[in-house]
Amino acid sequence: MDDLQTIIQTFTEDDYREFAFFIQRHKKKVVRKDYELFKLLLLKKKLTAPELIHRLYPEKENPVAYYALRKRLMQQLTDYIVLKRMAEDPTAASTIMGLLSLAQYLFNAGAEKLAWNILRKAERIAQHNDQFNLLNSVYLLQIEKADSLTADELEEIIRKHRANKSIADEDERATIASGLISKRLSQARLEGRFLSLDTTIQEILHTYGLAQAISQRPALLFRLMQIARSSVLARKDFSSFEPYIIEQYRAAESQYGFSNAQQYYKISLLYMIAHVLYRNRKFVASNQYLSQLHAALQTEARHHLAEYFPKYVFLKAANDAFSRNLPQAIDLLEHLIQSPSIRLAPKDFLTARLGLSFLYFAQDSFQKANNALTNIQKSDKWCEKIMGREWVLKKKLGEMIIQYEFGNVDTALDCLKQIERQYQDILEQPVYKNVSVFLTLLEQLFLQPDVASRKIFLQQVEGGLDFGFADQDDLPSMSFYAWLKSKMVHQKYYEVLLDLADGKPEK
């Protein structure tokens, strides 16, 4: 797939319509070849370069004009995405960059007084929104233009620049530290190694001189919690992370508080707390923190609604589902998907579809569960690019089990064999041992449905699947185990899942 098709495939249906208006906004030409190329690239059947050239230039094929046309369409796509990102940017970064560009233009045009007014405005916005790196750019431009009659005092600008540079440097070091931690965690997980969270964090903080700064700035506290959470998600060590993050959040709230510019950090930390409580099966407590998150999204943090409202709905629906409020959970996700006022990003759209399929399945509405997945209407390759291979693997497992519930055993078996072929490389990794064993057990079940009631099958399940059902167990993975167990004990899947989530002993 070429670069143009890759970009276009990230678009939603709304993006297609908006870009069509955008590309024809000037209306200087009756026929726009770049728009024609855009429509051809939207076709389900992917055309080769010679086929595209023939469609665009039927009278006389012109490869030179075609490649010039591709460059023009790429520029149009770039301009559209940049403007779209600026309109959706909740952090004020795009506003500051726009003001910097305007100030530079005004300086070049000789309008120095207005240019300096624009720079002062950019400075205020950057200070208010903790945009320290951009504020550094503002001060550098002020220093460069300090010979203007309307300029501020150079010594004062330099003093502010030095003070800000120190904070900006801390942010840069925190970004580097976060990247290093993420890489180490990923490598450790891939190799099946244990990595000490505390030791690794302390080492990185010491190396980059962040130990003292962490206790003084909520922004850096947020970075640290991101690092810690990455390790927790990899190790599934949720029980130890819960008191740690709650203590850190309460300390920050009481000692520093969260200004309007720091609302993003506040709601991000609230979400982390709600999520770890969910993974520790404290669904009521999780919903309490989600209520604080929702309240913030309606007031001070409303600029972050587009990013965090879907996250709020997904976690609230999961809490409700495990709290025996399945209809309420389904209503939440249905409203999110169907609401004309809510525009979901591709990642949120896919998360909502898979989550809704799970909830329908728990309700024994297998056709609805299947429709929720088929209505994604995107290839697995596209989904993998957005969500990663593990998400697509979960989707395929769900599709396979739905086919079995439909009574299409042969289709389910074909799905199973396809999964084993396509994911052989990751199924061989230690972290995916349960999935590999699960597929082996399912193959037995598909070939011999009555095997689920046999003692030898129970022994294979207990000996093969590494589940202890302690507080740190993985609820999403447990969902697949619960379905298998429901076949063994001849009970409703949803009831078995709730029993396991409640920590009830095996029967």
Averaged pLDDT, please?
85
What is the total tally of β strands? 0
Strand content: under 5%
How many DSSP H or I helices? 27
Describe what this molecule looks like in 3D.
The chain is mostly helical and 507 residues long. The protein has helices at residues 3-8, 13-23, 33-41, 49-56, 63-88, 93-108, 112-128, 132-144, 154-191, 197-207, 211-214, 218-235, 238-255, 263-279, 283-298, 305-322, 326-338, 346-362, 366-374, 380-387, 389-405, 409-422, 424-427, 433-447, 455-464, 475-489, 493-501. Helix 3 crosses helix 5 (63-88) and helix 6 (93-108) packs parallel to helix 8. The two termini are 52 Å apart. The model is unreliable at 468-473 (pLDDT under 50).
Short note summarizing the structure:
The chain has 507 residues and is mostly helical. The chain is built from 27 helices and no strands.
List the helices and strands and how they pair.
Elements lengths: L2 H6 L4 H11 L9 H9 L7 H8 L6 H26 L4 H16 L3 H17 L3 H13 L9 H38 L5 H11 L3 H4 L3 H18 L2 H18 L7 H17 L3 H16 L6 H18 L3 H13 L7 H17 L3 H9 L5 H8 L1 H17 L3 H14 L1 H4 L5 H15 L7 H10 L10 H15 L3 H9 L6
Helix pairs in contact: 3-5, 6-7, 6-8, 7-8, 8-9, 9-10, 9-12, 12-13, 12-14, 13-14, 14-15, 14-16, 15-16, 16-17, 16-18, 17-18, 18-19, 19-21, 20-21, 21-22, 22-24, 24-25, 26-27
